[in-house]
UniProtKB/TrEMBL annotation:
Name recorded for this polypeptide: Cytochrome c oxidase subunit 2
Keywords: Copper, Electron transport, Magnesium, Membrane, Metal-binding, Mitochondrion, Mitochondrion inner membrane, Oxidoreductase, Respiratory chain, Translocase, Transmembrane, Transmembrane helix, Transport
Example GO BP: ATP synthesis coupled electron transport
Span of domain Cytochrome oxidase subunit II copper A binding: 92-225
Organism: Cetorhinus maximus
Superkingdom as given in the UniProt entry: Eukaryota
Bilayer disposition of the protein: Multi-pass membrane protein
The Cytochrome oxidase subunit II transmembrane region profile domain, residue ranges: 1-91
Keyword Magnesium assigned: yes
């Protein structure tokens, strides 16, 4: 969960998000070193009148400043491609959920069950109970088992939406007439919040996503109770 004046990412709750944070730190350090070098060169050029005719026309320097940026780009590109393929990989999911975007709420269908599905609306401010977050809490949470591969099929019924949960490293566009898929494994129990990340109309800011990760036995009890209610 994000908090006021937070500068970094939310705490990672999935292996993919941990990889994304590590890649961010790796790239940020490279950018910091490049910025420091450029700042030093600019400062040196402005503050000194000394010149060296061998530096102004040097084949060795040209070779260095051609090869060095290429090496730096490779150091950024290889980890980036690795994470890209990790995010695209979906191996034998234990549970499949279809998330459908509407104006302006989400509906979820547990496709492994016959009649398990519900709509998820934001709880209005006047109806919040102590401890609930304004503009983020929903009347029905998407409950999933922890430490299990979960596949989410994402689509929309009317306009473009985007199903995104930052702590899980998940963001998938919901396009009418198209079925996109993403997957995640939640490494610890908890409640994780997200929002529609595509400008979808007047109430775009009021269609939150709440994912609750519970142990498998608790998930089975929850699904049984939901099926009994249906």
């Amino acid at each position: 969960m994000a908090h006021p004046s937070q500068l970094g990412f939310q705490d990672a709750a999935s292996p993919v998000m941990e990889e994304l944070i590590h890649f961010h730190d790796h790239t940020l350090m490279i950018v910091f070193l490049i910025s420091a070098l450029v700042l030093y060169v600019i400062t040196a050029m402005v503050s000194t009148k000394l010149t060296n005719k061998y530096i102004l026309d040097s084949q060795e320097i040209e070779i260095v400043w051609t090869i060095l940026p290429a090496i730096i780009l490779i150091m950024i590109a290889l980890p980036s491609l690795r994470i890209l393929y990790l995010m695209d990989e979906i191996n034998d999911p234990h549970l499949t959920i279809k998330a459908m975007g509407h104006q302006w709420y989400w509906s979820y269908e547990y496709t492994d069950y016959e009649d398990l599905g519900f709509d998820s609306y934001m709880i209005q401010t006047q109806d919040l109970t102590p401890g609930q977050f304004r503009l983020l809490e929903t009347d029905h949470r998407m409950v999933v088992p922890m430490e299990s591969p979960v596949r989410v099929l994402v689509s929309a019924e009317d306009v473009l939406h985007s199903w995104a949960v930052p702590a899980l490293g998940v963001k998938m566009d919901a396009v009418p007439g198209r079925l996109n898929q993403t997957a995640f494994i939640i490494s610890r129990p908890g409640v994780y919040y997200g929002q529609c990340s595509e400008i979808c109309g007047a109430n775009h800011s009021f269609m939150p996503i709440v994912v609750e990760a519970v142990p498998l036995e608790h998930f089975e009890a929850w699904s049984s109770s939901m099926l009994e209610e249906a």
